[in-house]
């Protein structure tokens, strides 16, 4: 079975929810702006991002978009927006494009990459 492309997944998200599509596109743009060497691939029903090492992913759900951090438990959450209590992963839920700024997503992305690299 062929791997699903990012473009195909984005079309599927847009078909279900224009708002989720816009939020996911904003997350993708922020990752590209923050990490010039970032790559993306479709896996587990979302888009995973790597910058030397895989460190985050974005997933569209019915009521929100979730930005998942693989090593999120290693992030000192001084801003208080991380959710989850698992052994390793944490996430930030986005319900609007404004949440990217309100929930300081750019800072979390940098912290997530640092945590994934073991720092």
Summarize the structure.
With 119 residues, the protein is an alpha+beta fold. The chain contains four helices and five strands; from the N terminus they run ααβββββαα.
Architecture overview:
By secondary structure, this protein is of the alpha+beta class. The protein has one domain: Aspartate Aminotransferase, domain 1. It has four helices and five strands; from the N terminus they run ααβββββαα. It has helices at about 5-15, 20-35, 100, 105-115; strands at about 40-45, 45-50, 55-60, 65-70, 90-95. Strands 1-2-3-4-5 form a five-stranded antiparallel beta sheet. Strand 2 and strand 3 form a beta hairpin. Helix 2 (about 20-35) crosses helix 4 (about 105-115). It is globular, with a radius of gyration of 13 Å. The chain starts with 5 loop residues before the first helix and ends with a helix.
Keywords for this structure?
single chain, about 120 residues, alpha+beta, Aspartate Aminotransferase, domain 1, five-stranded antiparallel beta sheet, 4 helices, globular, YdhG-like domain-containing protein, YdhG-like
């Amino acid at each position: 079975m062929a791997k699903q492309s990012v473009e195909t997944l984005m079309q599927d998200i847009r078909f279900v929810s224009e708002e989720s599509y816009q939020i996911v596109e904003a997350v993708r743009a922020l990752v590209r702006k923050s990490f010039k060497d970032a790559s993306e691939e479709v896996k587990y029903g979302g888009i995973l991002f790597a910058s030397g090492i895989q460190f985050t992913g974005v997933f569209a759900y019915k009521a929100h978009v979730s930005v998942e951090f693989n090593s999120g438990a290693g992030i000192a959450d001084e801003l208080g927006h991380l959710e989850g209590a698992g052994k390793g992963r944490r996430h930030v839920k986005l319900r609007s494009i404004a949440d990217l700024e309100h929930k300081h997503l750019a800072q979390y992305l940098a912290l997530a990459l640092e945590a994934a690299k073991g720092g």
